[in-house]
Design brief:
about 0% strand, 25 helices, mainly alpha, about 500 residues
Length: about 500
């Protein structure tokens, strides 16, 4: 799809911002700029020819690229002036302190500078804190303080800040290195391998990950340390320590959300939910999802569309996982909030989540004996034009579609669904054991009238196969098959 910087910037503005910007242009009598703004805003998608046609007869057409650059610069600066955050506010306050010093208003300058320093330290904005040092020196010298003593204190303070910045930078590099090295060595622990655990233990005792103190090292450092430790313990298979460090990383973020981004918080909650699943602590997930859904209202953000979508993807995925586990409350939330959006095509959702959530929702529908909803999810999935980035998804959809017709018994439609599943599996190489077991179960169900207890076990197993713990579903399928064969032998 063609795009343009000016078009993208205009589309990112809210209706209120567009209205206020036009008032701004009118106030400064920027008529030509307003005409171009209206023309760009009227476009549904970027098309240079359509824009030129709408400006036909206007003098700016001969230098349209210059006019677009001027409008983009003006809009960017106007939006920047309207955006209020701690970073910008403190920079404005530093400039204000300098202005007050130049005017000889030292008392006011000292008061404002104290506020700047306090905010910069509490928000861990080390660069802003360093900007305040020359102003401190200037004020102290104007008020007759001991210049030599203050210079020594300033140099010590700047050295501490430099050390902190260096540690943060190094910790960020260490985090990336840990992920790369463990990924290259293989994430899953192998009891017979002594080399990879040695690597993880070496990383576990990295000097920068020891002796962390929130009071002295700051929250940002804590997030890096906790994330790194969680990664290492997860690779070692230390489930309790892994979950504990994941919880600590999220706790550090929620203590002061301004020290990180909303996307980081969403990512930490996503990782913690996964950790709870693997630790069999699913009861701890719903409160986290409630916190996540409330996030946009607790964090000020001008354009929250991408954040809302990321939250919807994460919350939807974990609610369907809980619904597949038999949680009726979560199933109600899935059907009331997520399914209508998914069946409408999930506009704006990332491709991998569109595939994943349709698979999970179909499995959850089967688990809760709603074959009609499962069939709708499968049909919607099969209409997607984009290919799946996980090869198992299309096969899983065909299996779930076939399973959704089980209760109808052998019919032309159910037989067609089963044949489609067989063809999809035949084309899959290599074939995972879980997929083969699922097809065997479904085929048996078509050919036999199984007791309700076996039917229920297979329904649960099929749903579990679409969760992050797919091996549990495979085991459940084999157990259901074993149970069926035992019953057959007794007959």
């Amino acid at each position: 799809m063609k795009t343009d910087d000016l078009f993208d910037l205009v589309r990112s503005c809210s209706p209120t911002e567009k209205k206020l910007f036009r008032h701004h242009l009118a106030h400064h009598k920027r008529v030509a700029m307003d005409t171009l703004f209206v023309a760009v805003n009227a476009l549904d998608e970027w098309d240079d020819q359509t824009l030129r046609a709408s400006l036909k007869g206007h003098s700016m057409l001969s230098q349209l690229s210059v006019a677009k650059y001027d409008l983009r610069t003006e809009l960017t600066r106007w939006l920047a002036r309207r955006t209020t955050d701690t970073y910008g506010t403190l920079l404005d306050d530093v400039r204000a302190v300098r202005m007050l010093i130049d005017r000889g208003l030292t008392t006011q300058a000292h008061s404002l500078l104290d506020t700047v320093i306090r905010k910069a330290e509490s928000e861990e904005l080390y660069a802003h804190r360093m900007l305040a040092h020359p102003l401190e020196w200037q004020l102290n010298s104007m008020q007759g303080a001991d210049a030599m003593l203050f210079e020594e204190q300033r140099m010590e303070a700047e050295q501490r800040l430099a050390d902190t910045l260096h540690r943060l930078s190094t910790l960020s590099t260490v985090n990336l290195s840990i992920s790369k090295r463990l990924h290259a060595a293989g994430w899953m622990p192998d009891p017979s391998d002594t080399i990879r655990p040695a690597l993880a233990n070496e990383l576990l005792h990295h000097p920068l990950l020891q002796d962390y103190s929130p009071k002295h090292d700051g929250i940002r450092t804590g997030i890096y340390v906790a994330t790194a430790m969680a990664t290492i313990h997860g690779w070692l298979g230390n489930t309790q320590e892994h979950v504990s460090w994941r919880e600590r990383a999220l706790e550090f973020c929620l203590q002061n959300p301004s020290l990180t981004t909303p996307e980081t918080i969403v990512g930490l909650i996503h990782n913690l939910c996964n950790s709870y699943i693997h630790a069999a602590r699913t009861k701890d997930i719903p409160p986290l999802l409630d916190t996540l859904e409330a996030l946009p209202t607790t964090i000020r953000r001008t354009n929250a569309a991408a954040l809302h979508m990321r939250i919807l993807e994460t919350v939807g995925s974990f609610r369907t996982v809980l619904a597949m586990d038999g949680n009726a409350d979560q199933w109600h939330l899935v059907t009331s909030r997520l399914l209508p959006f998914l069946l409408d095509g999930a506009p704006g959702m990332r491709l991998r989540y569109r595939h994943l959530l349709l698979v999970q929702s179909a499995a959850a529908a089967i688990r809760h004996h709603r074959p009609d909803l499962a069939q709708q999810c499968c049909a919607r999935y099969l209409r997607l034009e984009e290919p799946a980035d996980v090869a198992d998804y299309p096969v899983m959809i065909h299996l779930l579609n076939a399973a959704s017709y089980l209760e109808d018994g052998p019919t032309p439609v159910s037989r067609a669904a089963l044949r489609a599943a067989e063809r999809a599996i035949a084309a899959l190489e290599p074939r995972p054991p879980a997929i083969s077991a699922a097809l065997e179960c479904i085929t048996l169900l078509y050919r036999s009238r199984l007791p309700p207890s076996v039917m229920e076990r297979i329904h649960v197993a099929l749903a579990t196969m679409a969760t992050p713990s797919a091996h549990t579903g495979m085991n459940a399928l084999h157990a259901a098959l074993h149970h069926y064969h035992e019953q057959q032998q007794r007959r």
